Amino acid sequence: MRNKYRMKLIQSIVVTALIAYSGIAYAQVVSQLPNAQPNPYRLIENPLTMPEGRVMGWVMGVEVDRNGQDIWLFDTCGGDLQDCVESNEPPVLKFDASGKFLMSFGSGVIAHPHGLYIDHEGNVWIIDGFGGNTPPDRRGHQVLKFSAEGELLLALGTAGVKGDGQNTFNTPSDVLVAPNGDIFVADGHGTEEQNDRIVKFNQDGEFIKAWGTKGSGPGEFNNTHSLAMDSQGRLFLGDRGNNRIQIFDQEGQFLDQWRQFGSPSEIFIDANDVIYVADSTSNPDPNGPEATNPGWERGIRIGNAKDGTVTAFIPDPDPAAALELVVVAPDGTMYAGYTIGRAVSKYVKE
Length: 350
Fold this sequence. Notes:
Layout: H1 2-22, H2 26-30, E1 41-45, E2 59-64, E3 70-75, E4 92-96, E5 101-105, E6 113-118, E7 124-128, E8 142-146, E9 152-156, E10 172-177, E11 183-187, E12 197-201, E13 207-211, E14 213-214, E15 220-221, E16 224-229, E17 235-239, E18 244-248, E19 254-258, E20 266-269, E21 274-279, E22 299-304, E23 310-315, E24 323-328, E25 334-338, E26 343-349
Parallel strand pairs: 14-15
Antiparallel strand pairs: 1-26, 2-3, 3-4, 4-5, 6-7, 7-8, 8-9, 10-11, 11-12, 12-13, 16-17, 17-18, 18-19, 20-21, 21-22, 22-23, 24-25, 25-26
């Protein structure tokens, strides 16, 4: 706690000095400081009612239909991180806006859930991040597209096979579909043995190009953990291991990088270019046992995707639970997903 108060004091001094000596507006200064923005949201815990006899596993994806009526959950089949390998429980579950369970699918399909995405047509995309190649149960390292009814429509990558080719991934983390139908995959989870690149396909799943390599420079990545797109068609990548967002055009040209949103586990951008970033790995204590991105607290940062200003910060009420996921319904209702905490929370504006 002492370090937290010290950081707040330092921030206050920095704000005062900048305003006094440079004439910068208060809001502009605060928008770039860690943990300094107001929290205008109220927390509602456990908004989803699981089907009888089914517990929630690690939450690896939470999404809202584009019509804002239904909520989708992607978990580890009710168990721990790797439990989908042995479980018969379906990892994809659908709820209505009140939290009532509607349907599920995906039993026996995947090895390790890691990412959920609902495209503009209502199709359900899931990431099978890790996996093995032992026949006959060859699963993992794939991006799978389903209809809303659970029919498999498209498979990207080769099941159970690691690689960096045109039809292989190594621990993919997220997927995004552009308005023209092009598909972008964030491929890699940050270790030396795994990829760190963005792969682009056309709407039929045919390879177009790939870019990125391991590193910390522009266009280099360390844990490609999330993808989002703004109204201009710019592609935002959560470069989590480098504690930054990188921004590209759709051909892979580097445009900018932002560090003011913390360490991004997931990025969501709404129709009005409001950006929401879930930070599950920062640690404000530079002397702590997990000194990651010192000075920054875990939580959700909200701002403007056009200019990068940060306008709000929701501190994570339980940092040990790993708040990795954020999605926002058209009416502004926000849902957050916790991996280790095995929970989904709901946030509404006060």
